Amino acid sequence: MSTLYVLDIPENTAVATIAAEDPTVVVDKIGPYFEIRADGPLVVDRRATGCRHAVWYSCVAGVAPGDVITQHDKDALRVESA
User: Fold this and answer.
1) How far apart are CA 81 and CA 52, in angstroms?
2) How far is Cα 64 from Cα 5, in angstroms, rounded to an integer?
3) Three-class HEC string of 19-62
4) Considering its fold, how many domains does the chain have in total?
5) Fewer C-beta within 10 Å: the chain N or C terminus?
6) pTM confidence score
7) Phi-psi group of 41: left, alpha or beta (phi > 0 → left; psi -120 to 50 → alpha; rest → beta)
8) Confidence of residue 23 (pLDDT cuts 50, 70, 90)
């Protein structure tokens, strides 16, 4: 399972919203964070979120132990289990 944590602030809401459109992704809240989980690799398309680059590159609060960010560029954010 791949898990991404994103701070729940207005600028980051689109990341959780777009991730939740994938039927394999579950988005929950843990304290002040969105917890975004998928059984396989978790991929969020930047353009679909509408996030500007500054918001996009600062949206990640963390990943679950054993998970790795394998892509975080102008196109997508990808988290996979190591």
Assistant:
1) 27
2) 8
3) HHCCCCEEEEEECCEEEEEECCCEEEEHHHHCCCHHHHHHCEEE
4) 1
5) C
6) 0.94
7) beta
8) very high
Range of the domain at 70: 2-81
Nearest-CA neighbor of 43 among 65, 63, 71?
A: 71
Residue type, 69: I
The rounded percent of the chain whose pLDDT value lies above 70 is: 100
Across 22-30, average pLDDT: 97
- List the CATH number of the domain containing 26: 3.90.56.10
Gyration radius of the chain over CA positions:
11
